[in-house]
Write a structure and sequence with these properties.
- Helices cover 27% and strands 33% of the residues.
- It is α+β, with helices and mostly antiparallel strands and 162 residues long.
- It has a 9-stranded antiparallel beta sheet with strand order 4-3-2-1-6-7-8-9-5.
- The termini are far apart.
């Protein structure tokens, strides 16, 4: 009889611990968005690699138009994916003066994206892997590395397919 009571008490304590852990996990605040800029407010996007313009798209009444390196229609859904960077979760945020080495020895961004007047500069990968430093104004953020990869896709990816 006593052994049965201990098993029930252990089960009750384990259940309470699991409920407390779940409540703590659910109560955590969601990461803040990288920027307050609404994607639908952006009219021009430029992607630069090593300081050189790789791609430019401009919003028009019919959607998006590639304006560099060629002039042709852009795939709106794929441009929307790039606009998603504006609302990407900032996994961590620091003042730029915090001493974090965002760009490494080159002291220049690896890749830059301009959304109208807003400039997002990608630095090197972080530890743990799968994250990347970005600088926006006087703040450094940590974001998922998928955004760096998406911005580095060849311009053909963004062309509208017939």
């Amino acid at each position: 009889m006593r052994l049965y009571a201990i098993d029930r008490l252990t089960l009750l304590l384990a259940t309470l611990a699991a409920l407390l852990l779940a409540a703590h996990w659910l109560a955590r605040p969601a990461p803040a968005s990288l920027t307050p800029v609404a994607p639908q407010s952006v009219n021009e996007i430029q992607v630069l690699q090593g300081g050189r313009l790789q791609m430019s798209v401009l919003r028009d009444r019919d959607g998006w138009m590639l304006t560099h390196p060629d002039i042709e229609r852009a795939a709106a859904g794929r441009v929307a994916g790039l606009l998603g960077l504006l609302q990407a979760p900032s996994l961590h945020r620091w003042q730029a003066s915090s001493g974090i080495d965002v760009f490494g020895q080159s002291d220049r961004p690896v890749r830059t994206i301009r959304f109208d007047e807003l400039t997002i500069e990608f630095g090197g990968p972080s530890t743990p892997p799968g994250r990347r430093y970005v600088r926006i104004g006087d703040h450094t953020h940590l974001v998922d590395d998928i955004w760096f990869k998406l911005a580095g896709l060849p311009v053909d990816y963004y062309r509208e397919q017939p």
